[in-house]
Amino acid sequence: MRFAARHVHFALLLLMAGVVAGCGADDPSPPRDSRDAAPATTGADEGDVSATTEDPGAVDEDAPPTPAQLAVGRGFERLAAAYAPVSARINFLVAAETLRADAVDANAGDDIEEARAGVVRIEAERMKDVLATARPKVAAVPVRTEAQQQVQQLLLEAIDVRTRAMGELLAAIQAQGRGLGDSVIEARTETWRASWDASLRATREATTTTQDARAVLGLEPAREEALR
Amino acid sequence: MRRHAILSALALVVILVATLAAGATVAAENVETNPATEPQQFDPPVAEPTAEATAEARLIRRELRSLARAWEEGGGRFGFPFWEKAGQRWTDRQITTPMYREYVAGYRDRLRAGCALLDAADIETSEARDVRSLVLDSCNKRVDALRDQQRWLDELIRRDGTEIGTEDDAVALDERIAERQQAWQEALQESYRDARLAMDLAQRELDESGMERLSEDAFI
């Protein structure tokens, strides 16, 4: 009896050893973040595609994209469509401002400068309207992947900074029109240029993020000028 | 009794070894996957840039600026925005096809000179050379795109303005129009892509050199 008890004792000790060792070797690592723990389903509009916040992995270049990859691609396209009116309007403003700045540089005369400043004012107001309309549309696009979320954030940032830039541009033109000092005009011009630059940077980064993500999924590149 | 003591001691040793092994495994996994237990990453101490390094950084910036100027003079400022605006107005039927064609030809001619300016820029640093290579590719592809776009518009003008002979002639013309359209659109996308990659690279190089970035519209 005592012999049996000893063996039971020994077996229990070995079992404990096995359990301790097993805990280390086989337990999965704790999730790195919430997306590993709980895949989010946000793609109600994606049909039967199982939507998770993970990008579907890199693919064989020769294989056609899977439905899940195509669905992710459509998410990027929806973001671009929501932002499209801003991209379409940008060169109307740039062309108008180029002509105005050129008239100022060339001392073309008050009449010409005022006429061109008037066109810029109209374009800046239009741009503000377009930005105000696009913002809620971009914000409302459901995003399914980290890359899409990043693109959405960059586009919202671009919209906000560009909206500010429009006010700053109008202030710079006003300073010029009223003949305020060079330092005031220069400071206001620098301010609007800095904001404009920040908005262009955000859209460039959004384009690079979109194209990189699409390439990983084996999708055709998006139109390069879609996000500007 | 003695046998029991030996067995118990043996089991305790096994537990000890197993516990240590398990601990090591968990620790290794944590290092790989748990950011909370990752060793704190410290930025390496930044050495004060030497005078030589600063001069090199300034040279990179100067060279990138000269590329931006060449691009601007070669169509970035007075070509691109007006050409694109004209394209939208043409699409909206606010200007005629021959008028739009003039914008295309004007931008193309200006850009040809721009590509020559880029090519002739005096560049020493490998960083600026890499950027120039991309910008030059973008420039040449855009010239190709504009040439094809002009041919495409020529075909459209021909289709709109003359009697097309047989049905076969009409089909052949439509096919040519479709081919030309595809050609200019593809070349334009490649040009835009290379310009963006050039800007990505230029800004990265300037960040690494600790220099002020270029204007974001430098290579548009």
Tell me about this structure.
The complex is a heterodimer of chains A (228) and B (220). Helices cover 73% and strands 0% of the residues of chain A. Chain A is an all-alpha fold and 228 residues long. In chain A, helix 3 (67-105) runs antiparallel to helix 4 (110-140). Chain A starts with a helix and ends in an 11-residue tail after the last helix. Chain A is elongated. Mean pLDDT of chain B is 83; it is low at 16-44. The longest helix of chain B has 43 residues, at 167-209. The radius of gyration of chain B is 32 Å and the shape is elongated. Chain B is mostly helical and 220 residues long. At the A-B interface, helix 1, helix 3 and helix 6 of A face helix 1, helix 3 and helix 6 of B.
Furnish the topology, listing elements before pairings.
The complex is a heterodimer of chains A (228) and B (220).
Chain A: H1 2-26, H2 34-37, H3 67-105, H4 110-140, H5 146-177, H6 182-217
Helix pairs in contact in A: 3-4, 3-5, 4-5, 5-6
Chain B: H1 2-33, H2 51-76, H3 80-91, H4 97-120, H5 126-161, H6 167-209
Helix pairs in contact in B: 2-4, 2-5, 2-6, 3-4, 4-5, 5-6
